[in-house]
Design goal:
The protein is an alpha/beta fold and 177 residues long. It has one domain: Ribonuclease H-like superfamily/Ribonuclease H (Nucleotidyltransferase, domain 5), CATH 3.30.420. It has 6 helices and 5 strands. It is globular, with a radius of gyration of 16 Å.
């Protein structure tokens, strides 16, 4: 399975393409950022994000696109603007006919790091560990995009495990219904 993970942003959108199967270790295919100019109008920046994601899709041919959900911060304007960036990414996915999986930021962090309140540096470190990289992907927006892809792969694996193992039931514990 090839997963394109995207961490939306109107100035910097981080992405990572991770390949992972049921038994094989996950590996990083490609990662980077799509940068836009803060001086340009929002509509032009959204077009740049859309086109950038379309280019990554054409180059890597992912099976699924995993997108981080909106972070509900104190600044409503930032949240709405981030929603626009997510929209550009979702349209790129729909245009390509690729299914989308969406994960809240806390779920990405919890799945990859083990804590839903992990800092960006912790996410970058754990991405490095999970993928056996020499160093974490930089900048941190890139690590976040890779983490979103990795989250989808790890969550897919845990859902495929037999009942009583893995995250849902706890390793070695039987479920009591």
């Amino acid at each position: 399975m090839i997963v394109l993970g995207v961490d939306p942003g109107t100035h910097v959108t981080g992405y990572g393409v991770v390949v992972g199967g049921d038994d094989a270790p996950a590996s990083l295919l490609e990662c980077g950022v799509i940068r836009t100019s803060a001086r340009r109008p929002l509509a032009e920046r959204l077009l740049e994000i859309f086109e950038g994601v379309c280019e990554v899709i054409e180059r890597t041919r992912p099976d699924v696109i995993s997108v981080e959900g909106v972070f509900y911060g104190r600044n409503v304007r930032t949240t709405v603007t981030l929603g626009h960036a997510r929209g550009a990414i979702l349209v790129a996915a729909a245009r390509s006919g690729i299914p989308v999986a969406e994960y809240p930021p806390a779920e990405v962090k919890n799945t990859v790091v083990g804590s839903g309140v992990a800092r960006k540096e912790q996410v970058a470190f754990m991405v490095q560990q999970h993928l056996s990289l020499v160093e974490p992907p930089q900048p941190l927006d890139t690590s976040d995009g890779v983490a979103v892809a990795l989250c989808h792969i790890l969550r897919s694996r845990s859902l495929d495990r037999p009942e009583g193992t893995g995250r849902q039931g706890g390793v070695g514990r039987k479920r009591v219904d």
